[in-house]
Amino acid sequence: MQEDREYSVYPSNLDILSSFRQFDEYLKINKYKPQEPKSDSHSLSLHIGEFRRLHAENFQEFMRLLETYPNALPIYVHYYWGKNASLGFSTIINIRKSGLEVCVRSDDLDIISSIHDHVKSFFQASNPGEDVSAKVSKYGLKKSIFLAHRFDEYGNDVSGKLNTFLRRLGFDVKEGSGYETKNIPDKVAQKIHSQDIFICIFTPGDTSWILSETSYAKALGKYIIILCDNQMNLNKGIIGSDYEHLPFPKNVVEKCYTDLIYCLPL
């Protein structure tokens, strides 16, 4: 099956090379590899002038050409990715000055939806009148979570209880490595990339790096859930009031478990 989506808006100063790098990194993290097509129907082309067009033989060569000609337009990418013989997809990403067209073909509807959502996020695409801040649906998500929290005694205690609870529900849970900085280390960024769901826990103290990680997850189009100790006066507008905000009493994060279950894909 195939789903086509067209967008008439993307930033005029969009870093197209960076967008393709994010797409490539997402594929690698999710263990998709470029596949040799069974026919010559694939195409990787860049217009680098009114009368010049370059064609790449494979995706790696396409990325090298795009590094050399980052302002090339139009760009047309039709290629195949797979994990094994039965699980994979093909994409068409057609970027023009007037807009963006994305086509995804696969036997798995969840794969189609996920690839479309991530490409839309990476290329910051939208249409006039569309609610670009709409909350990501929990349906079709993998049971993978990145858990952001403070690394003091209280933050570790709350996250430890929540981590155990989520693992018992069958979720793969990853956390940072004790970093508390506004600049997100590459290893932490890769973990956020790899997980479909982002849960952040706000407890008293400096939470600037949690806000940084949450903003990063938001830019990636992750499904975000916010847990907050009700001693704190968290301004929902900082992150976005459209996300789930679940309060809990001091030292009793278990009080929000019932509401949390309703927010998760089970």
Give a nutshell description of this structure:
The protein has 266 residues and is an alpha/beta fold.
Explain what you see.
This protein has 266 residues and is of the alpha/beta class. The protein has helices at residues 16-29, 59-68, 109-122, 153-168, 186-194, 208-219, 236-239, 257-263; strands at 2-7, 33-34, 43-49, 52-55, 75-82, 88-96, 99-105, 144-148, 172-175, 197-202, 223-229, 244-248. The strands form two sheets. Strands 1, 2, 3, 4, 5, 6 and 7 form a seven-stranded antiparallel β-sheet that branches. The chain has a five-stranded parallel β-sheet with strand order 9-8-10-11-12, sandwiched between helices. It is elongated.
Q: Helices and strands, in N-to-C order?
A: EHEEEHEEEHEHEHEHEHEH
Number of domains: 2
- Low-pLDDT stretches are none
- Give the distance, in angstroms, between the N- and C-terminal Cα atoms: 26 Å
Count of DSSP H/I helices: 8
Derived from helix and strand composition plus strand pairing, the structural class reads alpha/beta
Report mean pLDDT, rounded to a whole number: 86
Task: Offer a few descriptive terms.
8 helices, Rossmann fold, 266 residues, alpha/beta
